[in-house]
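stage 2 :: seqdesign
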């Protein structure tokens, strides 16, 4: 009788262990599915960068972790003449341009808090409060504009692509105004240039960027004056 009890106990333990293992497998599978769904919800399917939802999540994280006195920077990039490119070569070719540009942004952004595509031909690089300065944001914007315009980016493509950039550097408590400020700076930069989708050399692009510095950057000093006004 005791032997039967022992066998039953062992069988019950085996069933329980199998049930626990099955439960763990199902839970792990569910977690993986949720992770995939979350990644898809926050990622631009064409470029692999974050999408607007991903950017919003990064902004929320920066807002939650910011300390008093912290500043956050944002670079907003708008490709010049993508509509004309789509009209001339088709949307599939235009998508390949977006992918090529996104790759350069991803490589250049480095330790940025978030690199995202907002849709269409607009890209954003969010620089968190961890060790970035206004000069860092300006320098990265300059590098991105020059790099996008370089021949290497559009290798084997019959065009040269350029981008206009706006930079906003604001106190962390005004983070909700970052996109608007960067967008205004970007449109000032775009309106200061004559023509779009022009064939430019690296030297031409590099020469133009410093002269447009005032139009490209919405600095903290300007934000402070706005707050006082």
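stage 2 :: out
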């Amino acid at each position: 009788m005791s032997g039967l009890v022992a066998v039953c106990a062992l069988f019950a333990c085996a069933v329980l262990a199998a049930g626990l293992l099955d439960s763990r497998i199902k839970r792990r599978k569910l977690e993986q599915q949720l992770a995939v769904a979350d990644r898809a919800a926050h990622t631009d399917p064409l470029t692999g960068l974050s999408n607007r939802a991903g950017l919003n999540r990064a902004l929320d994280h920066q807002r939650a972790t910011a300390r008093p006195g912290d500043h956050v920077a944002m670079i907003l990039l708008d490709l010049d003449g993508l509509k004309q490119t789509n009209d001339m070569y088709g949307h599939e070719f235009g998508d390949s341009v977006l992918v090529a540009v996104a790759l350069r942004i991803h490589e250049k952004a480095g330790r940025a808090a978030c690199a995202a595509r907002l849709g269409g031909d607009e890209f954003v690089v969010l620089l968190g409060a961890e060790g970035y300065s206004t000069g860092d944001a300006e320098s990265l914007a300059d590098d991105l504009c020059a790099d996008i315009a370089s021949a290497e980016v559009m290798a084997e493509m019959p065009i040269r692509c350029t981008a206009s950039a706006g930079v906003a550097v604001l106190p962390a408590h005004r983070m909700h105004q970052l996109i608007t400020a960067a967008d205004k700076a970007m449109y000032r930069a775009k309106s200061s240039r004559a023509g779009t989708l022009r064939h430019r050399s690296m030297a031409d692009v590099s020469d133009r960027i410093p002269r447009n510095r005032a139009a490209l950057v919405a600095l903290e000093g300007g934000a402070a004056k706005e707050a006082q006004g």
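stage 3 :: structure notes
- The two ends are 91 Å apart (CA to CA).
- The mean pLDDT is 73.
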